[in-house]
Design brief:
With 236 residues, the protein is of the alpha/beta class. Helices cover 39% and strands 15% of the residues. Strand 2, helix 2 and strand 3 form a beta-alpha-beta unit. Helix 5 packs parallel to helix 7 and helix 5 packs parallel to helix 8. The protein is globular.
Length: 236
């Protein structure tokens, strides 16, 4: 199956080169890399030009949701059967890419999420972020009756059916927890696998400590409103 690795990147000049190097060194077959440069103010795009990868330079900053959806739209347009999101900050270890692809090819799930909280090894995020993650895990379990240990993880792969639906609808702001609920409401199967994550070497996270409360309230309301809507019919 043709695989597209989607890397949303905003001001990741300290991380993107090392990440691309590691991905290109992995033993993967039939894959392409797409960097979606979300109007970075640094040399992110220039660094990517030194690698044999595809780059989309967005004309304005869309945020993480818009950048990732751009990748899904590209995957749908060019007929990729698998898309894997890897954050541009270097936290996601490319050594798990092969496992994600194999699980999707075996049709054990429609989406695979890399969770740092199954085996609890590697970088575990800040205390405030962990509180928020546990909160969303409990909220999602309450609403969809399924435990997701790492609902904010951006390390995720999906098949062509999920590519189709996310290319048409993807939450714009802090999309990971909301997209999980949306996919489950559409009848898709989601699986988590244990992964180790690295600490960010440079740049600034899109979710900073002083915005944690705002993030939790905003995403909670979006998830609850989505659940209250009539579930759309899956046509795949």
């Amino acid at each position: 199956m043709r695989t597209l690795i989607i890397i949303p990147a905003y001001n990741e000049e300290k991380n993107i080169g090392d990440l691309l190097h590691k991905i290109l060194e992995t033993e993967l077959d039939n894959f392409d890399i797409l960097v979606v440069n979300d109007k970075s103010l640094d040399s992110t795009s220039e660094i990517c030009s030194h690698f044999n990868v595809k780059v989309i330079d967005l004309p304005c900053n869309l945020g993480i949701g818009g950048a990732v959806q751009t990748g899904y739209k590209y995957a749908r347009k060019y007929g990729y059967q698998i898309a894997i999101q890897v954050d541009g900050d270097g936290q996601h270890d490319p050594n798990y890419l092969k496992t994600i692809i194999e699980l999707l090819q075996s049709k054990k799930a429609d989406m695979i999420i890399g969770s740092r909280y199954i085996e609890k090894q590697g970088f575990q995020s800040s205390v405030l972020r962990r509180v928020g993650i546990r909160y969303f895990s409990k909220l999602i379990k309450l609403l969809i009756k399924e435990k997701i240990t790492d609902p904010t993880s951006g390390y995720r792969g999906c098949n062509s059916n999920v590519i189709e639906i996310l290319s048409q609808y993807y939450p714009s702001d802090y999309p990971e927890p909301e997209s999980i609920v949306y996919l489950k409401r559409n009848g898709f199967k989601i699986m988590e696998i244990p992964v180790k994550m690295n600490e960010r070497l440079g740049g600034v996270s899109s979710i900073r400590s002083f915005r944690t409360l705002y993030y939790m309230i905003k995403v909670s309301l979006a998830i609850i409103i989505d659940v209250l809507r009539k579930s759309p019919q899956k046509e795949f």
